[in-house]
Amino acid sequence: MRFSEHVTILYELPWQFGLCAFACYLFGIAHTVSNSSKLIENSWFKISIKIDIICSIFITLPFLTNNVCSIAAAVYAERGDFHKAKIFTDALYYLWTAYCFILATWILFAGVRLVKILQQHLDNQNEDVNSASIHKIKNGLFKIRMIMSISITSLFIFSFIKCMYGIMRVRLLLDHGLNLAIAAVWTYDGTVASIFVVMTVLVNPKALASLSLSSSSHGRSSESYTNMAATKSNFATFKDDSTLTNTTTTHYPTLYRQSMDDLSQDQTNYYYASPNPHTLITSPFNEQKNISATQLVSPSHQQYTYK
Predict the structure, then answer these.
(1) Mind listing the UniProt keywords for this protein, alphabetically (predicted)?
(2) Does the N terminus or the C terminus of the chain have fewer Cβ atoms within 10 A?
(3) Which DSSP helix (H) or strand (E) runs through 238?
(4) Chain-centre distance of CA 177, in angstroms?
(5) Has this prediction a pTM greater than 0.70?
(6) pLDDT digits over 121-142, tens only?
């Protein structure tokens, strides 16, 4: 294998690993949707084997087909057979277009389904009881939407560029400035997408939540201080109210004696209790006759005894 063939393979490998990473992300999303849909959706029921087959194709097939086309194009170009070299080169561009476009479409489809499931789960949560769970679901929704958008944008851009080179490669190569601009876009497309995905994964929502919690704690502290000041003011007013103080002092012995009489009467009524454990004992006070009645209630009969 000559030097040009080595260079061709090295050019293809980075994007093949990137496509493999996006396929693994699709693998995770699709299986999550499949497992969740057993309870929420019925259309994804029992298709785990199909998901495994599709994701395995996207992970392995680009390494086989694209490298074969790349090596074959380089070999025929070195031999001077430019017609066959052009055929394999066009096939390489169209394969990249198909892989990226199909993978982006599948990520969009699976991501939208997963967002829908999580949104339904979020709507069923109670904010007063499951505030921590709601925060986790919202954080997951944010990360899924961000990673899905970054992946789809990167794949569609790369697919569009490869399709352009497959259709009008000669014209683009003759325009030196446009060719360099497009080459810069497809070179850094995957790098920028990877950086944004890593930043999205590493985002810590607790750092943002701590700011809001500190501000809300400050608000609660101020409110507590205001309520405490109002309570002290009301207590001072209550303390200075001579009428209320005198009334309480005057009626306190009467209330005390009445409570002691009630306790004595309850102690007397205790001796009327039945030894039957199913008997319910009540001691209502008859205001008209000024007597206390002990009511013995059993499952079979009712008996009233007056003392």
Answers:
(1) Membrane, Transmembrane, Transmembrane helix
(2) N
(3) helix 205-240
(4) 45
(5) no
(6) 888 777 666 777 788 888 888 8
